[in-house]
Amino acid sequence: MGDSTDNIPVIDFSAFKLSLDKPDYDSEAFKKLVQSVHHALTTIGFFYIVNADFPPEKLERMWKVSKDFFHLPAEIKNKYPRNPKENHGYVHMEREKLNPDRPHGDLKELFNYHPMTAEDSLWPTETECPNFKSVLSDFWDPCLALHQRVLEVMGHGLQLEDPLLFVKHHVKSYENSGTTLRTLYYPAFKDVTVKEEQARCGEHSDYGGITLLFQERPGLEVRTRKGDFMQAQMVEGGILVNIGDLMQRWTADKYLAVKHRVLLDTTSEESVKPRQSIAFFGHPDYDALIECIDGSNKYAPVNSLDYINMRFGLTY
Ligand code: AKG
Known about the structure:
Elements: E1 10-12, H1 28-42, E2 46-50, H2 56-70, H3 74-77, E3 89-91, E4 109-113, H4 132-157, H5 165-168, E5 180-186, E6 201-204, E7 210-215, E8 220-223, E9 229-231, E10 239-243, H6 245-250, E11 260-262, E12 275-282, E13 289-290, E14 302-303, H7 304-315
Parallel strand pairs: 1-2
Antiparallel strand pairs: 2-10, 3-4, 4-5, 5-12, 6-11, 7-10, 7-12, 8-9, 8-11, 13-14
Family: Belongs to the iron/ascorbate-dependent oxidoreductase family.
Protein name: Fe2OG dioxygenase domain-containing protein
Keywords: Iron, Metal-binding, Oxidoreductase
């Protein structure tokens, strides 16, 4: 475990909160916001957003319906398996292995939501899990809006000629974007058989653009630049942000996609309890060509869809 005093920066988003259509670009508060995000993404690679006006009641509802879903019998959950085409549906325990070097799959289950998947057959029924579909659908909009604000702030931080460049490549209709909402459940230690070197969520960096992460309790560890892992501190009302590998590539390594993980440490009081988290994975539109923003050829241009397909192929 690394130095736990290396805390993740907490950034006040009041200058670009969800109720503002656009910020006052010349205000000191907005400039400070841009500078803080830029600093975080060029150093530790993670930051917490606070004061963004994110609706707390929507988050509360997400925790509840997610728990209801994951507590259903396996035979019901398994009726709605992840559909690889849309990346929508249920993924059972040990199915996903985020660190291919670990011998066993991750000790977690999850449900991915992709909004184009309106078909009822791909969702638990209202009798099986009341409000599951409507609550997940309702959580999508504030996540989408907040992630677009972060993308714009990043464009300013990098002093792009067009600060909206990233936003403009995250706008296509849902059929043409891999942006996904994921709700995760890590069962209590007593409810699982832990195999050697098994993790709740193996070491990995995210694949796409930027991720928003909501955590119900601690457990996430983030790799430091020294190479060890530190606990991400919990922040009341904080939404954790990090970037994915495709964004690191796009920024020609100016912004860093940092590895993270969740372990099952049987000696820690926290990790023997069940844990929930929710991730919103923002992904560039499928037809976006990701070319280094500095004009360099540090990375060859890559099509967003080809890239995500390649990464999923290695995970499942
Ligand atoms: C992922 O699903 O990619 C995560 O990193 C989840 C992290 C967490 O549960 O805190």
